[in-house]
Amino acid sequence: MASIRRPHSPAKQHLLRHHHPFVTSSPPSSPLRHSSSSSSSPRTHHHGGYPHPFLFFTRRPLPRFAAFFLLGSFLGLLHFLSHLPHQTPHLRPSSPNPTAVLLPHHQLPIVRLHDDDESSDADRNKLLVVVTPTRARAAQAYYLSRMGHTLRLVDPPLLWLVVEAGKPTPEAAAALRGTTVLHRYVGCCDKLNASDSDDGALRFRPHQMNAALELIENHRLDGIVYFADEEGVYSLDLFKRLRQVRRFGTWPVPVISENRKDGVVLEGPVCKQNQVVGWHTSEHVSKLRRFHVAMSGFAFNSTMLWDPKLRSHLAWNSIRHPDTVKEGFQVTTFIEQLVEDESQMEGIPADCSQIMNWHVPFGSENLAYPKGWRVATNLDVIIPLK
């Protein structure tokens, strides 16, 4: 049944036409015509009675809030991206104690010198490569822990190359991880496991240090190489001085000797400022050597291993520790491959008047120690409680 509606007055129709947003401009029709054509009226044509879906969108608060929120987020993201730097700045190490990791061969750090006008900044960023030969014995955990806790106080970057005489052991690896020092633990010279004497350790030690030199040369580690025995005692000032070495640096080292009354043998260079003018030694046999330097009394730039300009006199040969030279002459033979004379050496510190490290001989090597450094059974009570 058709509905009968009362038509509006002409004045009211004029007001509705100019002020109502959804009123149509079509002339009024009769009630019967309006009822018959209601299906085609613009007010009831799809979208719930609205002429355009956007009008429905603007009349709902939740979609309107979501639209402006997304628009504001997009504009804020554009502003943030426009203020990003075009080049990534160089990141300097900030933590004094880097996390200890076992690096694979293809992930060894390659640190280059920075193109900086201030030499002090270049010295602070110089990589230190500390090479330590070791072997499984009773005091290995003590030596590695003491050495590692000394190196953790050194400013980075520092890489500790620990070369085991034989296959790497899980006990030594656990001790190295406990020091929280960036290190690389490798094995060498499996035949050394059959010999626990001091002579066997000294005989295979050149092979261990050569394994470290091959690793440094193959990966082009640009830094200062220093051979630090695990039995030695080192000051933090030594590692600060090492970063000042340009090519080859040396200094005096006292060696504890059980064959002398005073118990100490001082060996090393005599310097006038930073120039080496002579040598001091207390052993008559050592006077036959060319350079009177202890193994822990020198450091050199690693680029000398592969740069022919820094070693023109031996540019055709690989620099390695000789394994066929008589004991006592291995250090001087190795140094002769790096420098020609004292004019190419740097005495550190000035006048070589400061003792920065001590060389301590091997301790007891034949002590029995539990496997894995753990006691499997309870110990016997020697002194019972009363």
From TrEMBL:
The keyword Cytoplasm does not apply. Gene3D superfamilies: Spore Coat Polysaccharide Biosynthesis Protein SpsA, Chain A. Residues 24-42 have a biased composition (Low complexity). It holds the Pfam family Glyco_transf_43. It comes from the Eukaryota. Its main location: Golgi. Residues 1-21 have a biased composition (Basic residues). GO terms for molecular function: galactosylgalactosylxylosylprotein 3-beta-glucuronosyltransferase activity; xylosyltransferase activity. It is found in: Golgi apparatus membrane. One of its GO terms (cellular component) is Golgi membrane. It is a single-pass type II membrane protein. Residues 1-46 are annotated as: Disordered. Its EC number is 2.4.-.-. The keyword Membrane applies. Keywords: Cell wall biogenesis/degradation, Glycoprotein, Glycosyltransferase, Golgi apparatus, Membrane, Signal-anchor, Transferase, Transmembrane, Transmembrane helix. GO terms for biological process: cell wall organization; glucuronoxylan biosynthetic process; plant-type secondary cell wall biogenesis. It is an enzyme of class 2 (transferase). The chain crosses the membrane at residues 65-84. The record marks 267 as: Interaction with galactose moiety of substrate glycoprotein. Belongs to the glycosyltransferase 43 family. Involved in the synthesis of glucuronoxylan hemicellulose in secondary cell walls. PANTHER family: GALACTOSYLGALACTOSYLXYLOSYLPROTEIN 3-BETA-GLUCURONOSYLTRANSFERASE BETA-1,3-GLUCURONYLTRANSFERASE, GLUCURONOSYLTRANSFERASE OS04G0103100-RELATED. This is Glycosyltransferases.
